[in-house]
Backbone:
């Protein structure tokens, strides 16, 4: 599901539940999800994407 | 703008009590008088514990007279954010959702404060369920900044900060999930410590986001923060006041890119002045880069509100109208987050954690502003920063949320004020809380620019 599809589906469900005020918050989440999906640390099942930064040990 | 108030320190009070110059009872009465005089307009407290506090103060005085000294917090009036359980009292979380709640036992932190002889004067107002940075959404009404009633004291521990600034308590215990100790501390000219993740137990604290929640003090000085941290932490590594280390030779990284890109002009000037004072004191400052800084907000949002939504799911369904509208909207929207996006955010958190640790490698700490803007006007959805308008929530979280994501300890120290007298804070970040406190104690006078806590706002 792309962020666009997700947003459309979430908006429709929020409307159905009588929660139209959720729209701006859902749009913000869609932009945020888009950013997360574009990030270079994500793995890719195709193996064609260069591996992102290694996950480090916890602080302290 | 209200006249400045004195910010007496815990350490000073303890010295005065032990010298016989005052008593815990007298100090507690002063705090209760300040609550009676000023809290009608500030609204810092949800519950005031006048009689229990006076009883505890008298007990503290009797114990000291009998030679039983429980340590640095003995007899010190402290307020508690109403997100922490106190046995027999409601923990409201500033929400009607908790209307029927009564705590069966003390939160671990509260129990440790009582054992240390602290006098608990009351429970402070907050942003509902700590989900916000302004304190405007509270079932008990907004908290007003003690210096300017038209402004927010910051949040979510806004009642805590206001209670200390207004002389209603010598210190307060708050929580910090994205900056909720450091933001109000900076806005109110206080020292605020977010310890390293999991150093201070959260048992008996209503969670916001369990993997980001921290408990810590808001107070007048770094020494006070160390005293409280040493009492409430599992193993603080702190014995007595933090011993200063030589400033000359300390090395601090300044993360300019992203963190200094969006600052109010007066905050930017105060931070530049702080850097100049530290350099003059012999501290070496150099630039560091957090490569994925521009992903911080997306990672934070997806971790924080998804975890919050899981905690609130049942009450969102059973009593939705008991939430304030804005908090309900944030939580309801979060229920649509896909598991795969939450997991991407967790992976991003690991990356950021490594980048902050790498920036600290070979350095004693990081230095950056705490809050990009001074205290914001109540009711404002956006605030002007430079040439543009920014959402209040985004701009207030911008410089603090990273260290909740990564778990590194961070402390804010007052570093100046706007022309209108609103406080500005600088933030130090380290690897170990004990070492961070030691460094902050060393640099406190230089960060403050020679203005002690008492006269910072004068």
Residues:
């Amino acid at each position: 599901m792309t962020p666009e599809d997700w947003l459309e589906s979430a908006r429709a469900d929020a409307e159905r539940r009588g929660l139209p005020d959720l729209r701006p918050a859902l749009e913000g989440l869609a932009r945020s999800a888009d950013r997360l999906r574009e990030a270079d640390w994500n793995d890719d099942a195709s193996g064609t994407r260069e591996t992102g930064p290694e996950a480090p040990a916890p602080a302290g | 703008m209200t006249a400045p108030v004195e910010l007496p320190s815990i350490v000073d009070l303890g010295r005065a009590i032990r010298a016989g110059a005052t008593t815990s009872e007298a100090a507690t009465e002063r705090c209760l008088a300040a609550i009676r005089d000023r809290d009608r307009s500030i609204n810092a407290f949800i519950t005031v514990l006048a009689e229990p506090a006076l009883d505890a103060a008298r007990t503290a005085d009797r114990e000291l007279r009998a030679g039983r000294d429980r340590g640095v917090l003995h007899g010190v009036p402290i307020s508690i954010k109403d997100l922490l359980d106190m046995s027999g009292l409601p923990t409201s979380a500033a929400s009607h959702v908790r209307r029927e709640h009564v705590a069966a036992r003390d939160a671990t932190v509260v129990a440790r404060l009582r054992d240390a002889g602290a006098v608990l004067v009351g429970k402070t107002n907050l942003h509902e369920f700590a989900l916000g940075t302004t304190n405007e959404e509270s079932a008990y009404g907004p908290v007003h900044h003690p210096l300017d009633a038209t402004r927010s004291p910051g949040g979510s521990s806004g009642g805590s900060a206001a209670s200390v600034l207004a002389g209603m308590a010598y210190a307060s215990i708050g929580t910090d999930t994205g900056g909720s100790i450091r933001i109000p501390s900076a806005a109110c000219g206080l020292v605020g410590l977010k310890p390293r993740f999991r150093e201070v137990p959260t048992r008996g604290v209503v969670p916001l986001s369990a993997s980001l929640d921290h408990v810590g003090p808001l107070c007048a000085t770094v020494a006070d923060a160390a005293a409280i941290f040493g009492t409430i932490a599992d193993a603080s590594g702190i014995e007595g006041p933090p011993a200063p280390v030589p400033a000359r030779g300390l090395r601090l990284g300044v993360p300019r890119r992203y963190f200094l890109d969006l600052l109010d002009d007066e905050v930017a000037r105060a931070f530049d002045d702080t850097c100049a004072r530290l350099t003059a004191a012999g501290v070496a400052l150099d630039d560091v880069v957090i490569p994925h800084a521009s992903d911080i907000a997306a990672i934070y949002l997806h971790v924080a509100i998804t975890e919050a939504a899981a905690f609130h799911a049942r009450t969102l369904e059973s009593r939705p109208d008991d939430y304030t509208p804005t908090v309900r909207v944030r939580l309801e929207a979060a229920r649509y987050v896909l598991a795969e996006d939450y997991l991407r955010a967790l992976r991003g958190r690991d990356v950021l954690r490594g980048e902050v640790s790498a920036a600290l490698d070979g350095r004693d700490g990081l230095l950056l502003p705490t809050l990009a803007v001074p205290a914001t006007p109540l009711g404002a959805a956006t605030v002007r920063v430079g040439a543009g308008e920014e959402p209040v929530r985004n701009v207030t979280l911008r410089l603090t949320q990273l260290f909740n994501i990564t778990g590194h300890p961070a402390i804010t120290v007052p570093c100046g004020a706007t022309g209108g007298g609103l406080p500005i804070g600088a933030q130090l970040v380290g690897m170990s809380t004990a070492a961070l406190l030691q460094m902050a104690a060393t640099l406190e006078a230089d960060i403050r620019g020679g203005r002690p806590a008492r006269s910072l706002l004068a």
